[in-house]
Design a protein that fits this description.
Blueprint: H1 7-13, H2 20-41, E1 49-54, E2 63-67, H3 74-80, H4 97-108, E3 109-117, E4 123-130, E5 141-146, E6 154-162, H5 164-172, H6 174-184, H7 186-191, E7 194-198, E8 201-202, E9 216-219, E10 223-226, E11 228-241, E12 247-248, E13 263-281, E14 286-291, E15 294-300, E16 305-307, E17 316-318, E18 329-336, H8 354-364, H9 371-376, H10 385-393, H11 413-425, H12 434-457, H13 465-471, H14 492-502, H15 511-514, H16 519-528, E19 530-532, E20 538-542, E21 546-555, E22 570-574, E23 579-584, H17 589-592, H18 598-614, H19 620-631, H20 639-664, H21 667-671, H22 676-688, H23 710-719, H24 721-724, H25 740-762, H26 769-785
Parallel strand pairs: 1-7, 14-18, 21-23
Antiparallel strand pairs: 1-2, 2-6, 3-4, 3-6, 4-5, 7-8, 9-10, 11-12, 11-13, 13-18, 14-15, 16-17, 19-21, 20-21, 22-23
Helix pairs in contact: 1-4, 2-4, 13-25, 18-19, 20-25, 20-26, 23-25, 25-26
Length: 790
């Protein structure tokens, strides 16, 4: 069989940069193209649509790709392996047999055997391309193999004498290869009956973990913005060349690029969806762009950057994520662009093509996503699908407003990411968004309970120092009786019932009231009177003693009792397998009076359970320590971790302070408090973040607060308390009381928390454990002190 060009050129093709997975995908593409034609024809296909990839077992092994397609004739095979030739239409197919085939096989190994057969053929026919043996006559050896069953059909590619480095990668990274291919071909696996097996395991589609179609948020209390937006826009049909694939003016009879007269009218359509991921991630967010069902771009973020057409070259401004950018993002999507040409490596589109530019305009519009930036540049409001999602979900505050799960005080991003991993593993408990939704609702309920408790502790209508002292948690000189925990009242009904029995004059107690409540009835009552506690709902344990799956639930009414009806702060209820429910009574005195951490008591209970089950020699304290390290790593007093928490909260405070200054028009007044060195530091921060603004413009809006040194915020709140207290940015009262001492006390508390947070955000170096513990508490208390978002 004659192939073109020479073996030397084929060896040079192997130097073209292709990753190992791209080489495999190039060969899979050709099989899926064949499958697509069969599937579209509606012809029943015996044997199904299956591609199998056998990975090398050693560096001296071989790579085998087999499909159950139609197979090829001798003439078709000869053209298919000829470098530079392609029988595939550039707009309807994934693969380009010729060049893509030769690049992939030459990059993987020095010898490639291609065998193919059609249903009814008597044998397998093929060719062996040995780069060390082919001479300048371009002749490759024809080969045949006997056929066990005449009904066999398909193609088999065997690559041997593998490149050692690539062979080792394929040998060791079967799981990673399946994950990449599961992303690239996910749409096909979900929408067509195609199967791909790699290393003996079926490749599963890597699906997006997005919020459901019916979820939405309310913007400005009037506009409902969905968390899932479908896009389907047809453009005017175009004229495309069947040889080179280039789009042509509609009045031409031949291709202006290659001269071919094979011009056909083709549909141009942009369709797919944009949505919101159920969790934040630093890397895994962005838009997937597909061509003919294969993902060309994955987690692509270029549409999140606005490029000013009137600006200088390289004038690009990132717009998402900007608020708390270090957390990552959660806008995702899948957009099909079958009419847009791609590069030969299939890792990018031809961005200079007008078809790509039209698609970008449909998905993200032409104006900036940031409304203020658009207004400053005299653009009309951006109403594109991406701009709509950006408007509704740009922030990451916990609760219903932005559809972010929380624990009553703050977002629980670590937990939602962990739930996302369970979704990826196929855990049915995480299939829908119900767990995320429940955490959003539980967050709102916890916030409501906290506000009600604060309201009950205050004395409305009496704006004096005593009221403020009481609201802030300080009792009078004589003290105040402590509020009994819910758990301390549990035994009261039994006492009253016993008293009624002894009192002959008391009315008779019904049999139901006199009957002792069973454990199952108590547990059922606890389930009905509790909500999920996401922070402690997870797997607990250690490899040496095993693990248990815990669903933690916080009681909303009543208290917990153990088997002897004694009040208890934590109660475990074992379920099937290694799962259990842990009920927490956070009103118990151990939490309310002594400030115990619920995690500590839960760990103690779980350690007892696992110690008995595993019959370990570990001491109880040793086991508790090991379980905490294994299961609750985020609770470690790690300076960098706590600094990240401080920076995250401080970013939220900055944005709220900016909004308040812009609302009241006091930005210029606040700007005057900057010292010369703070102004210099602010300018440096703005330049480092790509925000080049003239110093003279800084005070015209509150935006400069986004870049000022963190400790300046502390001084600004102290200097302008009326601008930020009284539920403007912070809940602490200030102008609402007449007493100057009460004002100072309220302000000192808020400023104290803010100072701790700002200090840690500024100086992230190592600190003593007690200092880090104080900062973590200040982070929680400052988050609790933030005003309800308007």
């Amino acid at each position: 069989m004659k192939i073109t060009p020479s073996a030397r050129v084929l060896r040079m093709l192997g130097e073209i940069e292709f990753d190992e997975w791209q080489c495999i995908a190039e060969l899979i593409d050709n099989a899926f193209d064949d499958f697509t034609e069969i599937h579209r024809s509606g012809t029943p296909w015996a044997g199904g649509y299956r591609v199998s990839v056998e990975l090398p077992e050693s560096a001296q092994g071989q790579l085998v790709i087999t499909d159950t397609g139609r197979g090829m004739t001798y003439d078709r095979l000869e053209r298919a392996v000829r470098a530079g030739w392609s029988g595939n239409d550039m707009h309807d197919k994934l693969g380009l047999f010729g060049m893509g085939f030769n690049v992939s096989t030459a990059r993987l190994g020095k010898r490639t055997r291609v065998l193919t057969t059609r249903q009814g053929d008597t044998e397998w026919i093929g060719v062996e391309i040995d780069l060390d043996r082919i001479g300048d006559d371009f002749e490759a050896e024809d080969i045949t193999e006997p056929k066990a069953d005449p009904n066999e059909h398909g193609t088999r590619i065997v690559i041997s004498r593998l490149h050692p480095t690539r062979a080792r990668w394929l040998q060791k990274n079967g799981s990673a290869l399946r994950n990449i291919l599961g992303q690239v071909y996910s749409w096909m696996f979900l929408n067509r009956p195609f199967e791909l097996w790699v290393g003996g395991f079926q490749v599963k589609p890597v699906r997006h973990c997005r919020w459901g179609d019916d979820r939405s948020v309310l913007y400005n209390n009037k506009e409902r913005i969905p968390a899932y937006i479908e896009i389907d826009q047809k453009l005017e049909n175009g004229l495309a060349c069947g040889d080179c694939g280039q789009w042509q003016p509609t009045d031409r009879d031949d291709c202006e690029d290659c001269g071919s007269d094979r011009l056909t009218v083709r549909e141009r359509r942009v369709h797919g969806w944009l949505g919101i991921q159920r969790y934040m991630h630093k890397h895994d967010y962005g838009i997937d762009f597909l061509r003919n069902g294969r993902k060309i771009l994955r987690w692509d973020k270029q549409l999140f950057t606005w490029r000013n057409p009137d600006g200088a070259v390289g004038n690009e401004e990132p717009e998402y994520p900007v608020d708390l950018a270090h957390q990552g993002g959660r806008i995702i999507g899948e957009i099909h662009l079958d009419h847009v040409p791609v590069t030969y490596q299939k890792d990018a589109f031809e961005y200079g093509d007008r078809s790509w530019r039209s698609a970008v305009e449909i998905v993200r519009g032409v104006a900036p996503l940031l409304p203020q930036r658009a207004a400053n540049l005299e653009y009309e409001e951006n109403t594109s699908p991406l701009a709509l999602l950006f408007k509704g979900f740009r922030r990451n505050d916990a609760g219903l407003r932005y559809l972010v799960p929380g624990d009553g005080r703050k977002p629980i991003h670590d937990d939602t990411r962990r739930w996302g991993q369970e979704f990826r593993r196929g855990n049915p408990d995480y299939e829908t968004d119900e767990r995320w939704w429940q955490a959003v609702e539980d967050h709102e309920a916890a916030k409501s309970r906290g506000k009600n408790a604060k309201a009950a502790a205050s004395t409305p209508g009496r704006p004096d120092e005593a009221a403020v002292m009481e609201a802030l948690g300080f009792n009078g000189a004589e003290g105040a009786p402590s509020t009994p925990s819910a758990g301390s009242d549990v035994s009261k009904p039994d006492t009253e019932a016993q008293s009624s029995k002894d009192d002959s004059s008391a009315p008779a107690v019904s049999a139901r009231e006199d009957r002792k409540e069973t454990r199952q009835e108590r547990v059922t009552r606890y389930m009905e009177s509790s909500t999920t506690y996401p922070a402690l709902s997870r797997s607990f344990g250690h490899p040496r003693v095993g693990f248990v799956e815990v669903e933690a639930r916080q009681l909303t009414a009543g208290g917990l009792t153990d088997e002897n009806l004694h009040p208890t702060p934590v109660l475990l209820d074992q379920r099937a397998g290694n799962s259990l429910v842990a009920f927490l009574d956070l009103h118990h005195p151990i939490f309310q009076k002594f400030g115990a951490d619920p995690a500590d008591l839960l760990l103690a209970e779980i350690a007892v359970l696992l110690r008995v089950q595993a019959e370990t020699e570990w001491s109880h304290s040793e086991l508790i320590a090991a379980i905490r390290v294994e299961s609750l790593p985020a609770t470690a007093l790690d300076a960098q971790l706590i600094s990240a928490e401080a920076q995250e909260l401080l970013a939220e405070v900055r944005h709220r302070m900016v909004s308040e200054l812009d609302r009241t028009g006091e930005a210029e007044k606040a700007y005057h408090f900057l010292s010369p060195d703070e102004l210099t530091a602010t300018e440096h921060a703005m330049i480092a973040n790509g925000k080049v603004t003239r110093t003279a413009d800084l005070g015209t809006s509150g935006e400069f607060l986004l870049h000022v040194p963190a400790l300046f915020l502390v001084r600004l709140v102290e200097s302008l308390p009326s601008a930020f207290m009284d539920n403007r940015v912070f809940q602490g009262v200030y102008e609402g009381v007449a007493s100057a001492s009460a004002r100072r006390l309220s302000l000192a508390r808020t400023v104290g928390y803010l100072s701790d947070v700002a200090t840690q955000a500024t100086f992230a170096g190592a600190s003593l454990p007690n200092q880090l513990l104080r900062t973590r508490l200040s982070i929680r208390l400052l988050a609790d002190d933030l005003a309800e978002e308007k």
